[in-house]
Amino acid sequence: MDTTVGIVGWGTYFPEQIEVAAQLVEPTGIPEEILREKMGIRQRHVAGPDDTVTIMATQAARKALEKARVAPDRLNVVISHGSEFKDHLVWNAAAKIQQNLGAGNAYSFEMYALCAGAPIAMNMAKSMMVADASHEFVLLAAGSRENDLINLQNERSRFMFNFGAGGGAMVLQRGATKNLILGASAFTDSTLSETVVLTEEAVAEGESSVKGEIVGRLDVQHSDYMGARLGETSLDNFVKVISESVEKSNASLDDVKFLGITHMKRSFYLQILETAGLTPDQSVYLEDYGHIQSVDQVLAVELGLAENRIKPGDLIVLAGAGTGYTWSAVAVRWG
User: Fold this and answer.
1) What predicted TM-score, i.e. pTM, was given to this entire model?
2) What fold does the segment set 182-333 form as a domain?
3) Which of 50, 189, 277, 280 stands 20 to 30 A from 317 (CA)?
4) CA 37, CA 284: separation in Å to the nearest integer?
5) Coil, strand or helix at 124
6) Which residues, in sequence order, are CB contacts of 206 under 8 Å at separation 6+?
7) Is the peptide bond prior to 325 cis by the omega test (within 30 degrees of 0)?
8) DSSP 3-state assignment of 323?
9) Each residue's pLDDT tens digit, 1-45
């Protein structure tokens, strides 16, 4: 009998401070209606000084462990798949999350695929757990506050104005009987590998170029090429990885009941749903949170359950895309 791996706990954490669309009008120069309706930014959470990446990931992880009814000392592995803009540079954030939780019997490491990270981390962790019987419980945790790295006056960074802050976590169990992780797929278009980078050129006038231990702000290079390339390929690549994850699960797109996908502009979100044969009732749009890197997928699951859009027995797909440029998806049989 094949070894199964399932999601037995999940949780999220968001900073208390909230920015609504009206507060972004002045710094961005974008009308509120455009921010809300086209860009899908109704509000977003903004991290305070104590909301580090590891603290937010830890808070989410505590909720996930509580839901799973798993004590921290039963964890075998802690994997951080969150932001590289973290507490310190050249540093293992997963070890700090492990320490915060008191998971003294685990080992910890990071994997990084930007906003495509969650489905890839889930597939990687499953593979490790199937291969090694000693890996009974694995924690996936992520935090992001990359909105700190955006100059809201920089038109080139407009597609990143939806960035918000928060943390998310999942507890996976080897031999689980519910919420089973099935097939996964990912694809990278490496011609876009250097289109989004940190540069000092993107720093706002009169603003310090230093943020914590990094210098510069996120900026877009070769914007004409990036826009044209994504316009030509992004929809196809999303559908490609979603379809492949389902096919590897011995199912078809017709079997999918819910899609949890990263936040993006509303029109493209709706286009992906339509192309995949799904309706908005079979997903959740993260307009009250914005885009929180690889936290989006666990947030989508949490909201989908709260809104009764995910039911026992449903085949669901979690998908994302991150600069680099990578598209990813993983299928889960819920319940």
Assistant:
1) 0.97
2) Peroxisomal Thiolase; Chain A, domain 1 (3.40.47)
3) 189
4) 15
5) helix
6) none
7) yes
8) coil
9) 699 999 999 999 999 999 999 999 999 999 999 999 999 999 999
